[in-house]
């Protein structure tokens, strides 16, 4: 396999790295300060729109979409290193319009949406004018098994009526969130994986109620956030249905494959930044008459970080390459592997960085505590480790015993 990048990708990488250094990193503290200074944290500081305008003017926009009609036309292998660079900052993915869940939702609309759906919702998402959310997980069932989902989508005349309670609907707290992709049951008598459907729901539709914003280890992730949302007999036109009744699982699989590559590469970027901070701290602090970086135990943990990050990156590039060569279905095992490996690796690296920083590592003075909370959540998002490990095991048994 060949992970060598074209001159175009190398040029994008250089431009993106420079933009991060010159624009994004200096803006991080100001962005958080603007949130705290506003009348509510659930408002978008003008700084974000300024950064987005600069990124778009620089040609660093919608890089995630492989379809050249809408995005940059990059393969998964080509986009992966760019995604890693963006993952080094909490605000960067949105700056370049490459942020979840909008990336996954835009991919759904590109692949499965009608012309009318794309015109109404995809185009403003591509321009970064609105945001979106994805309502799948439910608090009353084990949503790691999506066949448990109980939300209902029932047909009434020329409409569908939706009812259900969703939570961790990421992005629903953003005042710019205008559209939701909702997953619910349309036919309980159909085969297990054909009972669910997905439908587009405007967030201002009567009956859509954001009941509360959930914290993640104490962080509110404003102005994006993770919401609990009630759908109280929400009526939407039938033409809002995606692909057709009973096609929800099919859409979910198409949506989650690339998204897991994106999550993993952003995770690797976050681990790289943590390692940089670790090394800088170790080189600048003296304890018991020696710099921390001169102590053998610390050199060993730095080496462990370097090895583990590189291993995770190569495993992710392998999954991206297989997706490009053979498709998402053929790369199921590789995708599941990276979903387990990358967050576990990043948690170890960030934890070591926290340890070297001492009290500062668990405070708001570095990004480490928030990074740890964020990455720990990824071991649940898009399926817990146990689900992915079970899939890898089943596929490996089939390969070995066939």
Any overview of this molecule?
The chain has 402 residues and is of the alpha+beta class. The protein folds into 3 domains: 7-113, Butyryl-Coa Dehydrogenase, subunit A, domain 1 (Orthogonal Bundle); 131-242, Butyryl-CoA Dehydrogenase, subunit A, domain 2 (Beta Barrel); 249-401, Butyryl-CoA Dehydrogenase, subunit A, domain 3. Helices cover 50% and strands 15% of the residues. The chain has 11 helices and 9 strands. The strands form 3 sheets. The protein has a 4-stranded antiparallel beta sheet with strand order 2-3-7-6, with no helix packed on it. The chain has a 3-stranded mixed beta sheet with strand order 1-4-5, covered by helices on one side. Helix 7 (248-284) runs parallel beside helix 9 (332-357), helix 8 packs antiparallel against helix 9 (332-357) and helix 9 (332-357) runs antiparallel to helix 10 (368-378). The radius of gyration is 21 Å and the shape is globular. 44% of the residues are buried. The model has no long low-confidence stretch (mean pLDDT 95).
């Amino acid at each position: 396999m060949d992970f060598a990048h074209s001159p175009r990708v190398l040029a994008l990488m250089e431009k993106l790295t420079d933009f991060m250094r010159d624009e994004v990193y200096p803006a991080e503290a100001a962005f958080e300060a603007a949130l705290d200074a506003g009348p509510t944290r659930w408002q978008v500081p003008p700084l974000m729109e300024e950064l987005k305008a600069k990124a778009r003017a620089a040609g660093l926009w919608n890089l995630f979409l492989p379809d050249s009609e809408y995005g940059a036309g990059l393969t998964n292998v080509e986009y992966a290193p760019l995604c890693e660079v963006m993952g080094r900052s909490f605000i960067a993915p949105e700056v370049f319009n490459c942020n979840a869940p909008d990336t996954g939702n835009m991919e759904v609309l590109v692949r499965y949406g009608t012309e009318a759906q794309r015109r109404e919702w995809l185009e403003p998402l591509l321009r970064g004018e609105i945001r979106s959310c994805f309502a799948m997980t439910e608090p009353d069932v084990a949503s790691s098994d999506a066949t448990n989902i109980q939300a209902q989508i029932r047909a009434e005349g020329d409409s569908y009526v939706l009812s259900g309670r969703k939570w961790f609907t990421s992005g629903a707290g953003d005042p710019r969130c205008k559209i939701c992709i909702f997953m619910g049951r349309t036919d309980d008598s159909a085969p297990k994986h054909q009972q669910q459907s997905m439908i587009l729901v405007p967030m201002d539709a009567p009956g859509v109620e954001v009941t509360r914003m959930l914290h993640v280890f104490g962080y509110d992730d404003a102005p994006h956030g993770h919401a609990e949302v009630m759908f109280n007999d929400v009526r939407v036109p039938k033409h809002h249905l995606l692909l057709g009744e009973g096609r929800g699982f099919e859409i979910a699989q198409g949506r989650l494959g690339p998204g897991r590559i994106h999550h993993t590469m952003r995770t690797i970027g976050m681990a790289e930044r943590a390692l940089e901070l670790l090394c800088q701290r170790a080189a600048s602090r003296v304890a018991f008459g020696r710099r921390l970086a001169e102590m053998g135990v610390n050199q060993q943990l730095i080496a462990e970080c370097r090895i583990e990050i590189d291993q995770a990156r190569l495993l992710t590039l392998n999954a991206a390459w297989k997706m490009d060569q053979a498709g998402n279905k053929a790369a199921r095992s590789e995708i599941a592997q990276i979903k387990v490996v990358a967050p576990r690796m990043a948690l170890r690296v960030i934890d070591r960085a926290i340890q070297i920083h001492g009290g500062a590592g668990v405070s708001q003075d570095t990004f480490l505590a928030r990074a740890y909370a964020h990455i720990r959540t990824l071991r649940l998002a898009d399926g817990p480790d146990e689900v992915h490990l079970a899939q890898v095991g089943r596929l490996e048994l089939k390969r070995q015993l066939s």
